[in-house]
Amino acid sequence: MEQCVRNGEESELDYQDVEMLQSYGINLADLKKLKVAGICTVKGVQMTTRKKMANIKGLSEAKVDKIKEAVAKMSNSDFLTALVYSDKRKQVFRITTGSLELDKLCGGGIESMSITEAFGEFRTGKTQISHTLCVTAQMPGAKGYGGGKVVFIDTENTFRPDRLKDIADRFNLDHTAMLDNVLYARAYTSEHQMELIDNVAAKFHEEPGIFKLLIVDSVMALFRVDFSGRGELADRQQKLAQMLSRLQKVSEEYNVAVFITNQMTADPGATMSFQADPKKPIGGHILAHASTTRLSLRKGRGEIRIAKVYDSPDMPENEASYAITPGGIADAKEC
Ligand SMILES: Nc1ncnc2c1ncn2[C@@H]1O[C@H](COP(=O)(O)OP(=O)(O)OP(=O)(O)O)[C@@H](O)[C@H]1O
Ligand SMILES: [Mg+2]
């Protein structure tokens, strides 16, 4: 396994290039085809089904079988003991949101190797949290986290570099260096969004261990436009599932935190019941299952907002308040 030593952190990461499969008899031209399709590492091959690989131009089923066999030989066993796995989990880091209270709510910050989803009505701070994370992800943090670069995929045209500058001022960071560490892309259609996520995988591969955070603000907006009406719902959910599965894999393969935002819609069934909050996040079960941690955001007094853990494998359903300030997200008591 390759040893990556960067920013003073030392960690064993499996960024094994697919080209290593050459020594198992796979020819380079075929491996290059995998890379063009966004599969750059041996782990990436493991995470892709045979069917999907056979869809790549120039790869026959026989070739795919040979590649899969080579990967199986190389990785010996897919099983690890819980002890080894717990060591692997030690690579997981957390990025501060700018508010200690909000961090506490999510177990110390936005977690790597998983997807965190924040949903809420307009002006609840989803985009402001995204902007704050662009800056805080670059700063060294708890437990040896060294900081790193960020990718921001913007589907609503609400990314503002000037906001990043204000937030950088709060943390005394140099504007130019900070802006240089954020790769920005505007997505225009849901298909474009998917392509960008594939390209992101290639970027992460080019500079292993350098990127720490991937933001998609917002994840559903384009799907909502591109697939309208009940007739297209099944198709939308299928495409959405593919995109989320890609995001999940990218987060694990390259040990990055994935932060996505989501909108809400009125729940038509809720008016008939005594539910306190008749709104729910869009994306249905597909999104619900893909996000590891779901934060529900709502407005409080003035610039105060309240976040609630909606769904998490290891966090209790608590609440925390935070404030939107010129310097980004902060504790509510600071304003
Ligand atoms: N420079 C700033 N200083 C303080 N507060 C700001 C600043 N810029 C924006 N805000 C506040 O942030 C809030 C908007 O938050 P944000 O854009 O993150 O909402 P959102 O949840 O992304 O909404 P939408 O669903 O429309 O995308 C507004 O209440 C606004 O007052
Ligand atoms: Mg927004």
UniProtKB/TrEMBL annotation:
<keyword id="KW-0469">Meiosis</keyword>
<dbReference type="GO" id="GO:0005524">
    <property type="term" value="F:ATP binding"/>
</dbReference>
<dbReference type="InterPro" id="IPR016467">
    <property type="entry name" value="DNA_recomb/repair_RecA-like"/>
</dbReference>
<keyword id="KW-0238">DNA-binding</keyword>
<dbReference type="InterPro" id="IPR027417">
    <property type="entry name" value="P-loop_NTPase"/>
</dbReference>
<dbReference type="GO" id="GO:0140664">
    <property type="term" value="F:ATP-dependent DNA damage sensor activity"/>
</dbReference>
<feature type="domain" description="RecA family profile 2">
    <location>
        <begin position="271"/>
        <end position="334"/>
    </location>
</feature>
<protein>
    <recommendedName>
        <fullName>Meiotic recombination protein DMC1/LIM15 homolog</fullName>
    </recommendedName>
</protein>
<keyword id="KW-0539">Nucleus</keyword>
<dbReference type="GO" id="GO:0003690">
    <property type="term" value="F:double-stranded DNA binding"/>
</dbReference>
<dbReference type="InterPro" id="IPR020588">
    <property type="entry name" value="RecA_ATP-bd"/>
</dbReference>
<feature type="domain" description="RecA family profile 1">
    <location>
        <begin position="91"/>
        <end position="264"/>
    </location>
</feature>
<dbReference type="InterPro" id="IPR011940">
    <property type="entry name" value="Dmc1"/>
</dbReference>
<dbReference type="GO" id="GO:0000794">
    <property type="term" value="C:condensed nuclear chromosome"/>
</dbReference>
<dbReference type="GO" id="GO:0000730">
    <property type="term" value="P:DNA recombinase assembly"/>
</dbReference>
<dbReference type="Pfam" id="PF08423">
    <property type="entry name" value="Rad51"/>
</dbReference>
<dbReference type="InterPro" id="IPR010995">
    <property type="entry name" value="DNA_repair_Rad51/TF_NusA_a-hlx"/>
</dbReference>
<comment type="subunit">
    <text>Double stacked ring-shaped homooctamer. Interacts with BRCA2. Interacts with the MND1-PSMC3IP heterodimer. Interacts with RAD51AP1; the interaction is direct and stimulates DMC1-mediated homologous recombination.</text>
</comment>
<dbReference type="GO" id="GO:0007131">
    <property type="term" value="P:reciprocal meiotic recombination"/>
</dbReference>
<dbReference type="GO" id="GO:0000150">
    <property type="term" value="F:DNA strand exchange activity"/>
</dbReference>
<dbReference type="InterPro" id="IPR020587">
    <property type="entry name" value="RecA_monomer-monomer_interface"/>
</dbReference>
<keyword id="KW-0067">ATP-binding</keyword>
<dbReference type="GO" id="GO:0042148">
    <property type="term" value="P:DNA strand invasion"/>
</dbReference>
<keyword id="KW-0547">Nucleotide-binding</keyword>
<dbReference type="GO" id="GO:0006312">
    <property type="term" value="P:mitotic recombination"/>
</dbReference>
<dbReference type="InterPro" id="IPR003593">
    <property type="entry name" value="AAA+_ATPase"/>
</dbReference>
<keyword id="KW-0131">Cell cycle</keyword>
<dbReference type="GO" id="GO:0070192">
    <property type="term" value="P:chromosome organization involved in meiotic cell cycle"/>
</dbReference>
<comment type="function">
    <text>Participates in meiotic recombination, specifically in homologous strand assimilation, which is required for the resolution of meiotic double-strand breaks.</text>
</comment>
<dbReference type="InterPro" id="IPR013632">
    <property type="entry name" value="Rad51_C"/>
</dbReference>
<comment type="similarity">
    <text>Belongs to the RecA family. DMC1 subfamily.</text>
</comment>
<dbReference type="GO" id="GO:0003697">
    <property type="term" value="F:single-stranded DNA binding"/>
</dbReference>
